[in-house]
């Protein structure tokens, strides 16, 4: 996983372009309403989305790719980027008021997804809030490649993707209080000038 992402950042640079996700503005509004001060961003990439949050909040990004971290420190010099895997974050780590996690969750098997959510929620203060996005089962890539688990496909060599329906997404977060889910379409303009519209889902909730 680390090599896959690092090679992509080396070869493609700012892979998803300069525009942040529209979901980060939604998350920012919800974080402000909830008096959030500190945010953890797992899988922060090159800081495309952290940059929107770091003008109002104290943001730490955890990112597995050292190449992405180099780009991120140039792109968003207010956030603190930590090199490492979200799976290796200690449960004694500092606690955050909120988590924003964009398109990381669907990259793993079921056991890993459950571990990812558990690890992230452990990093929250009591009543801390989370906002995750992931691939939807309505995305055009659904069904491509070998199905290695239910609704999880190896849709590019060495890269998994799980495609969530709404009930499945809610079920993944059943240990917390789910407040809202929804669907969103995102158009990406890749650094090689190709365009693609992705169908995503988001989930917003609170640590019990
Ligand atoms: C689909 S990209 C999304 C990047 C970023 N959230 C964005 O939208 O610009 C997934 C990101 O997660 C990172 N990543 C993958 N596995 C990780 C892990 N175990 N811990 C931390 N980051 C990881 C990848 O290097 C990549 O930057």
From TrEMBL:
Protein name: Class I SAM-dependent methyltransferase
One Pfam family of this chain: Methyltransf_25
Record's keyword annotation contains Transferase: yes
Domain Methyltransferase intervals: 40-128
Keywords: Methyltransferase, Transferase
One of the protein's GO biological processes: methylation
Keyword Methyltransferase: yes
An annotated Gene Ontology molecular function: methyltransferase activity
């Amino acid at each position: 996983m680390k090599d896959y992402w690092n090679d992509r950042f080396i070869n493609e640079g700012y892979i998803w372009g300069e525009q942040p996700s529209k979901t980060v503005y939604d998350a920012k509004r919800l974080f402000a309403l909830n008096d959030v001060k500190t945010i953890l961003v797992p899988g922060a990439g090159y800081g495309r989305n952290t940059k929107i949050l770091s003008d109002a909040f104290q943001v730490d990004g955890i990112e597995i790719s050292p190449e992405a971290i180099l780009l991120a420190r140039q792109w968003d010099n207010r956030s603190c980027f930590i090199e490492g895997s979200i799976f290796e974050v200690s449960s004694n780590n500092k606690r955050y008021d909120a988590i924003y996690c964009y398109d990381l969750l669907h990259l793993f098997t079921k056991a890993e997804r459950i571990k990812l959510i558990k690890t992230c929620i452990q990093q929250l203060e009591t009543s801390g809030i989370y906002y995750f996005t992931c691939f939807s089962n309505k995305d055009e890539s659904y069904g491509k490649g070998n199905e290695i688990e239910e609704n999880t496909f190896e849709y590019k060599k060495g890269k998994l993707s799980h495609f969530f329906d709404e009930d499945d997404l809610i079920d993944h977060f059943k240990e917390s209080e789910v407040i809202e889910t929804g669907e969103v379409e995102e158009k990406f303009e890749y650094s090689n000038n190709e365009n693609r519209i992705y169908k995503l889902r988001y989930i917003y909730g609170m640590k019990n």
